[in-house]
Structure formats: C-alpha cells, structure tokens
Amino acid sequence: MNFHAPESGRPHPSGIGQAVLRKEDTALVRGQGRFTDDIDLPNQAHAVMVRSHHAHGVIRRIDTDAARGMPGVLAVYTGADLADYGTLKPAVKFPNRDGSEMRQPPRPALPTDKVRFVGDPIACVVAETVQQAKDAAEAVVAEINPLPVVTETSAAIRSGAPLLYDEAPDNLALDYHYGDADKVAAALARAYHVTKVTLVNSRVVVNAMEPRSAIGTYDDAGWTLRSGSQGVMGMKRMLMDILGEPADKVHVLTFNVGGSFGMKAAVYPEYVCILHAARALGRPVKWTDERSGSFVSDNHGRAQVQTAELALDGQGRFLALRLTGYADLGAYLGAMAPQPPTLNIVRNAASLYRTPLIEVSTKCVLTNTTFVSPYRGAGRPEGNYFMERVIDVAAAEMGIDRVELRRRNQIKPSELPYKAASGATYDSGDFPAVMKRALELADWKGFRARKRESRKRSKLRGIGVGCYLEVTAPANKEMGGIRFEADGTVTILTGTLDYGQGHASPFAQVLGEKLGIPFDRIRLVQGDSDQLLAGGGTGGSRSMMNSGAAIVEAAAKVIEQGKAIASIELEAAVADIEFTDGRFVVAGTDRAIGIIALADLIRGGLELPADVPHSLDVSHVSDGVPAAFPNGCHVAEVEIDPETGISEVLKYTSVNDFGTVINPLLVEGQVHGGVVQGIGQALTEHTVYDADGQLLSGSYMDYALPRAGHAPEFIVVNHPVPAKTNPLGVKGCGEAGCAGGLASVMNAVVDALSEYGIRHIDMPATPKRVWEAIQEAKRRQAA
After folding, report:
1. Rounded CA separation 698/478 (Å)
2. Is 91 in contact with 336 (CB distance < 8 Å)?
3. Which one of 282, 297, 312 terminates a domain?
4. What does the pLDDT read at residue 724?
C-alpha cells in the first residue's frame, strides 16, 4: 500500500476568469501552423475548377477534348460524371406564409442544365501539377446560350423577370411570415406615432484570411476529406448524404483554419469533385482556391432590405415592430441560407426592449449572384441594426432624446425572466446598467465640446449608440470527451471547432478549474470525426456554452469514476473519498492521490475489481444547453470631412454582458474583430454587380476591406450577469462586435450628417455616398 503526496498546483494563474494567452499562438506566429494547403500527400494530384463567365445561360456543350489531351492531365469531369451523387441541400427549412413547403431547387456539384451566376463551377480538371491543371482549364470550351440576368431582389420577383428555376415561380424560394398580422396592424393604427424607414443591410464578401482548400482521398476504408470547416461532424453528415455512404465510410479532418465567419461550415461543389476524382483515379486529389475564385464562389453574407415600422404611444413606449422586406439568397440555397433573414430576425430584432408585438415578413429571393449564407452573426447583427436605426429615426421624429427613448423601453432587471414577442424568454441581464456604464465611459455628456472642436476644423462630428441583444444558437448534442494520455497530458475531445477563436485555452481553463489539471498539460481535439461521437460545430456564439457544459459534465463523470478507483488505492470507502484541487482525499486524513498519478497507476496495471471503473477516461455526449442572451451597449464617435465624404471612427466604447467571462483577453479580441468587421460593412465594403451579373468588386483593388488604420481607439468593458441556463453561466461573445458595431457606427454617421437635415443613409456609407448625400441636402436647403 502506497500513499501519495499531493501534486503541485498550477504553475501560474490559469483558471476561469484569467487572461491566459492562446495556446496556439506561438506556433502560428512562427509559421508552424498546419493549414489544409500546407498538407501534401504522396502521389497527390491537383484540381482546378472551370467556372462560368456567364451569370445565366443554358449549357449546350462543354468541350473537354483539348484539355484531356494536354500534358499531365489525368481527367476532366463535368456534371454528367457526377450525376450519381446527391445534391447540396439546405440544412434548415421553413414553411411559407400559406403553410406550403419552401421551394428547394436542387444544386448538383456541377450543373448540367444551366449556369446561374458568374463563378458557377461547370468542370473540374485534374492534373499532375497545379499549373498543368490551370493550363488545361483554359482549354475547356463551354458553349452557353446566354439568358437574361436579374441581380436585384426587387426586380427578381416582378412579373416577367428571368426565372432561375422552373420550380421556383417568381424566383421566390420562401415567403416567410411570423407574428399576428391583425394585432400588429391594430397596434400601428392606434399608435400615437409610427416611424417607417426602409433599411439596407448590404451584401458583403466574406474574405477569410485563408482561402478554401481541400484534399480528397479514397481507399478500402472509405472517403476522407481534409478541409477547413466549422465542425467535422456537420461536414461529415452532409457528405454522407451526398455520397450515399454510412458513417463508418466517411472521415473528415480539419486542421488550423484561417477564418470562416460562417462561410466554411458547409460542403461546397469542389469537395464532391475531388472526392469523385480520388476514387476514380485511385490517388489523393488536392484543390486550393485563389482569391479571385473566393470572391465569386465562397458564400456572401447579409444582403437584406427591410422596411421597419415602429409604433409608439404618446410617451414613446413601443407598441409594435413590423419588418417587411426581401432577402437575396443568390443563385442557390446555401446550407443555412433561409434562417438569417427569417427566424434569426424574429429572435433578435426585438432586442432588449419591451416590444409587445413583432411581425416579420421576408421574401427570400433567388438572383443571378453568388449564393448568400451565414456571415458573422447570421441575422443577429441585422436584426439589431434594424431596431436600433428605427429607434434613432423615431426619436428624431418625435423630438425625444434617443438615449431617453431607449431607456424608457428597456426591460428592467425586475422584469426578468421576460417572455419576448419572439417567443424567447430572457433569463438574465441588467440592460439599463450596461447602457449607463457605456455612456459614462464614452463621455456622452462631453460630446458637444468635442463636436465644437471638430467644427473649428470644418469637420462634422457624430456620436451613435447601438444597444443589442443576441439570441445564440440553440442546444445541440455535444461531445465532452476526456482522455488521460500516457505522457501525462490530458486530451479534451469536443465537436466544436476553432477557426480562429482560440478554443484550446478557455476549454483548458474550464477543465483545469474542475479537475485541478495543470493548464499546460491539457490538449484539445476537435478536428477528427473518427475520434468524436457528436458535435454541433462552431457557430451562433455557442461554443463555450455547449462544449463548456459538455466538459463540465464529463469532468463530473471523471470525478465519480476516480472516487471509485481511488477508494481501492487508498483503502477507503467510496463515500469517504473527496475530490479537491486535483486530488482524491480520504476525508479527515492526509491520505490522498493526485488525479494524474492515479491515471498513471491505472495505466501501470493497478488491480481493480470488476465492478469498479477501469479508467478515468470519459466519452460523454451532452444534450446541450438552451440559447443564451449576450447583450451590450456600444458607442461610436465619428468625424466626417464634408469636402470629401470620408468618415473616420475616432473612438469606440463597448460594455458587454457575456455572462461569466472565461478568458477576458480572448473576449476582448473577439469584440475588436467583430467591431472592425462592422466598421467595414458600415463604411467601406461595397459589393457591386453590373447589369450582366458580373461582380465588379471582385478583387482587393475594388472591394475595400477595413485596414488597421480604420480601427479606432477601443474601450471594452465586461459587465457580467451570469446566465442561469448553463453550468458555467456563459453567454457567448463571438458575434457581439458586429451586432453593436453596425448600429452604433451608422447611427453616429447619421448624427454627424443631421445638421444637414439627413435622417438616414444606407450602408456602406462610402465617401461617394456621404458626399452625394451632403450635396443633395445642400440643394434642398437652398431650394
């Protein structure tokens, strides 16, 4: 019998709430990351896609003869070669307003009938080298009879508009409706004041740092896809459906991912092409996109137009919100495409205000443009933007201070839990206190002096507030695996996936807190579908809620198993074993054994009765936790040069309630990134198609991503009110920057322009648009 001294504690503070550095950063900054394009397999071939130059047209013939005869070419595939595979389908469905089914035109990996947008893949060339494949791709001749093109939603649903699909009359995929139309209409009719404003939430190109890349292999064990993703289990399920194969025949691997923001979550046509090629050729096939291809083939984001009507009583209290508009789905239905402009608008537009009634009517329309699917927030920033802009316009129309109007309508802590008109029940928060703190930190009261100083320099200065409340993604089954390794490390296995967020550190902080395992001994596996039992992937700001809950539950099982095993080693009853600070202790004694030491003993052959667990390892699947409600208040301050129309964000303040903050350093980084993406959409990024469906802003010479110089001085403060719906009390932070950024920046721009009588300008507020708005306002004033 051997008794064991306690193991030493953690070498540095690394528990919940500590600003611990990201585990992966050292490797990444040294160029030691492993992205898909870094991988080269033995005997690997290379694929290049042939894309349509027409936005709409009938495919008459695709001549591949010349390409097949070129040096190094192994194969050229067209739609006919892939006809036996399933189609790419939307993962979510909603009924139409009349109860009928949403229209779902099929999308094969390669079309055989028509092309429907510029960039539509029509052939796949496979060769020994990338350059040989590129040369051969140029030799593929596509005979396409052009058809009329429609790129705007309002034009696409008009009578006589060019039809993309026979099965989608009027190019309407979904006529969505939520709410009691009669009650909302009655509220609007009896209202003291109704504000009505049409708002554009502009189309954006995702532009992840790492272009999409994938390698397909096939052998006796089945198919393997190596690619960037947001969750290997979701990618596996989609591939199983397309390939018609059972789970044990499909393997997905994801390594480091250089950004996604929703775009890499689903299967793309290229993946089906290279998997087919791998089976047909009996060798690995690799494909990596180039930036010019990414602009047209990666899903775009946002692309909504909504007319917002806000009904208010004489005291400025909200009576109802009605949103009526259009969503541009592009040429095909993306995996999650119908949800952001429909259900997610319902869930998020009411925000943190007492809004008794809400109605959302969105026509989801097909156009000859790149398909639209989730982009950071996926309806959450859009819904909050629509609400925050209509509040500012209503305040101006009614002569009520915009902050006061918000204050009158914010849900108070005493009213929680609060059943919103969306059907969600908010469990926690202190919305008035968050806004109050944000205004104080932004020095809202001192703004007039700063505005006078700007005027002396012939500049316009504006300040804008953007409150937000998000409804995160709902519960999903999530793995919480814990494995004790022979080298003394511990591996967490879970089905979310880090594509830039830095999961390894906060997950290790949670496990370290629960099991007392040193931070630097904890590893993370998320990107191997063969090692996972379940996983919902990363999206909707739910990773820490779902994986965190799964880890907490799995840790409890480890402790339960460990007590039974430790009771044998320490010769005590199970009921007398306590677990504290990483040790199993016989209550009231100094007899103890550390959890890592116990794992080593088990591995070394510790004799255990049959009715006692024989390992500390756990493979647990959690049912998941309900959605949470991160919220906050952002304040942006801008300065505009009226001679050029250039807008600059000078200062940015945000106070956020993310519930329990696991790692404040990572939280601040998430807010910074989301805000800058919001600034980009608000001020610089402009997606432009011409009448023929050509993407005019298809490169960084034409599409203005925000740069470091656009990033303002940031103040980020946490005001945590822990959630009551998950064991960690977390709420999610990944999309908050966009949700607060769009509204606060655009409200600040309009505030700066208000001295010209301008009450609204649509994003992107580019220099040209701002300058033209000023000139038009001057003409009106002079008339």
Report:
1. 38
2. yes
3. 297
4. 96
Amino acid identity for residue 698 in this structure: G
Residue 38 phi, psi (nearest 5): -75, -15
State how far the Cα of 225 lies from the Cα of 278, in Å rounded to an integer.
Answer: 10
CA angle 160, 166, 168 (to 5 degrees): 80
HSE (CB half, 13 Å, CA atoms) of 369?
Answer: 31
Using an 8 Å Cβ cutoff, are 773 and 758 in contact? yes
Question: Is residue 768 a contact partner of residue 744, using CB atoms and an 8 Å limit?
Answer: no
Query: Is residue 195 one of the residues assigned to a domain?
Result: no
Residue 304 is encoded by which pair of tokens? 């909504």
Per-residue confidence (pLDDT) for residue 475, from 0 to 100: 82
Determine phi and psi for 26, rounding to 5 degrees: -60, -45
Which tokens sit at 309? 């009507």
Which residues is 410 bridged to in the sheet?
A: 353
The strand pair at 57-63 and 114-115 is best described as antiparallel
Q: How far apart are CA 583 and CA 590, in angstroms?
A: 11
Per-block mean pLDDT, blocks of 10 residues, the chain (783 long)? 38 82 93 96 98 98 97 98 96 95 95 97 98 98 98 95 95 98 98 98 96 98 97 97 97 97 96 98 98 97 98 98 98 95 97 98 98 95 98 98 98 98 97 98 98 97 98 92 97 95 96 96 97 93 93 97 96 95 95 96 94 96 94 98 97 98 96 96 97 97 94 95 96 94 98 96 97 95 86
Q: Say if residue 641 is exposed, middle or buried (CB neighbours under 10 Å; 0-12, 13-18, 19+).
A: middle
Residue 505 domain-assigned (yes or no):
yes
Tell me how many degrees the CA angle 411-417-422 measures, rounded to the nearest 5.
70
Q: What is the pLDDT of residue 474?
A: 87
The pLDDT, as a whole number, for residue 4 is 37
Q: How far apart are CA 776 and CA 778, in angstroms?
A: 5
User: What pLDDT is recorded for position 267?
Assistant: 97
Assess whether 458 and 522 both reside in one domain: no
Give the C-alpha distances (Å, rounded to integers) separating 214 from 16, 126, 211: 36, 14, 10
602 and 645 share one domain: no
* Residues spanned by the domain of 292: 208-297
User: What distance in Å separates the CA atoms of residue 669 and residue 671, rounded to the nearest whole number?
Assistant: 5
| Cα 48 from chain centre | 28
Distance CA 56, CA 392 (A): 41
Q: Hey, what are 597's tokens?
A: 């030491």
- Cα(280)–Cα(217) distance, integer angstroms: 10
Phi-psi region of 44 (alpha: psi -120 to 50; beta: other; left: phi over 0): beta
Q: For residue 405, what pLDDT is reported?
A: 98
How far, in Å, CA of 163 to CA of 150, rounded?
A: 9
Element (H, E) at 216: strand 213-219
How is residue 189 written in tokens? 């009719």
Q: Of 294, 237, 310, 284, which Cα lies nearest the Cα of 260?
A: 294
**Separation of alpha carbons 382 and 379, rounded Å:** 5
Output the six-digit token pair for 543: 């990773």
Domain match, 642 and 654 both = yes
- CB under 8 Å to 767, separation ≥6 — which residues? 644, 645, 646, 647
Note whether residue 545 is domain-resident.
Answer: yes
Q: How many CB atoms lie within 10 A of CB 539?
A: 26
**How many whole angstroms separate alpha carbon 539 and alpha carbon 301?**
14
Helical axes 736-753 vs 380-398, angle rounded to 10°: 30
Domain end call among 267, 297, 327: 297
Residue type, 708: A
Give me the phi and psi of 350, to 5 degrees please. Answer: -65, -25
Q: Please identify which residue in the block is written with the tokens 């993946």.
A: 271
Q: How far apart are CA 87 and CA 592, in angstroms?
A: 58
Q: Phi-psi category of 518—alpha, beta or left, where left has phi over 0 and alpha has psi -120 to 50?
A: beta
- Return the sign of the alpha-carbon dihedral for residues 448, 449, 452, 454: negative
H-helix or E-strand spanning residue 671:
helix 664-679
Q: Give the pLDDT confidence score for residue 307 in this predicted structure.
A: 98
